[in-house]
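Tokens for chain A. Residues wanted.
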């Protein structure tokens, strides 16, 4: 059974307070009556896939208890993701592991744009985790088209499950989060990763794009910030951005006893 509008309103007030909730409702009403056009990204036109669009939490209800903690769906800009991945690979230099040893897990993968971009790197495996069944189906359809051409990683899977159920292999793993949800999902996810990290023999890395909850992440015992910065977006990505963003901010972390190895 889904969350009723009254329950959703009550949860919003408890999470954000009455003033912030009123601001959020005002913006949503404005979007409802005066929607801004969101252009189709050139990535979709080039590859005949569907990863464009801006979907807010109200559009992504699945009936799950965590629906109320979703932020929105908006695909990562390709130039931003490629730049962040380059920064992450730099921190692997001098460690026992290379990108080919890692499983890439996109938590909140949406329509799968990042999964496709990641497949152009030699990851051991790529996994997308998505709560919304409609977005999961779109991601699977996109990947079926994408996989008709060869890519460096062909072992790609999309799972329609909650973020807290994301499978974490024993091999090295890098998580990608693009500000997918609020602290009520983020905190237990971080706690789970830290608990896993202290008992394993391989690292868990986290690429956190648009890191609005960085303070929460950095309060986790034993986690280390490996690098941080911003990636300038290409003109193509800027033109297709609903938020008029010119850069992708990021922070890269490592959990557990491998945190000092960089």
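Reply:
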């Amino acid at each position: 059974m889904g969350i009723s509008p009254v329950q959703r309103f009550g949860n919003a007030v408890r999470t954000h307070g009455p003033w912030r909730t009123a601001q959020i409702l005002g913006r949503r009403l404005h979007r409802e009556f005066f929607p801004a056009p969101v252009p189709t990204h050139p990535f979709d036109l080039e590859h005949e896939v569907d990863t464009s669009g801006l979907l807010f939490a109200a559009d992504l209800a699945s009936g799950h208890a965590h629906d109320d903690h979703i932020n929105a769906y908006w695909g990562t800009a390709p130039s931003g993701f490629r730049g962040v991945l380059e920064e992450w690979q730099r921190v692997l230099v001098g460690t026992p592991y290379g990108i080919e040893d890692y499983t890439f897990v996109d938590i909140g993968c949406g329509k799968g744009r990042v999964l496709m971009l990641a497949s152009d790197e030699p990851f051991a495996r790529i996994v997308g985790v998505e709560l919304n069944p409609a977005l999961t189906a779109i991601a699977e359809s996109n990947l079926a088209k994408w996989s008709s051409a060869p890519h460096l990683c062909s072992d790609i899977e999309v799972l329609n499950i909650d973020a807290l159920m994301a499978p974490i292999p024993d091999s090295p793993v890098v998580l990608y989060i693009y500000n997918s949800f609020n602290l009520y999902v983020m905190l237990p996810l971080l706690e789970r990763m830290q608990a896993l990290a202290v008992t394993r023999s391989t690292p868990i890395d986290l690429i956190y794009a648009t890191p609005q909850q960085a303070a929460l992440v950095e309060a986790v015992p034993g986690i280390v910030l490996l690098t941080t910065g911003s990636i300038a977006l290409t003109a193509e990505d800027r033109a297709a951005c609903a938020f008029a963003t010119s850069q992708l901010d990021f922070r890269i972390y490592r959990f557990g006893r491998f945190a000092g190895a960089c």
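The chain is about 35% helix and 20% strand. The chain has a mean pLDDT of 87.
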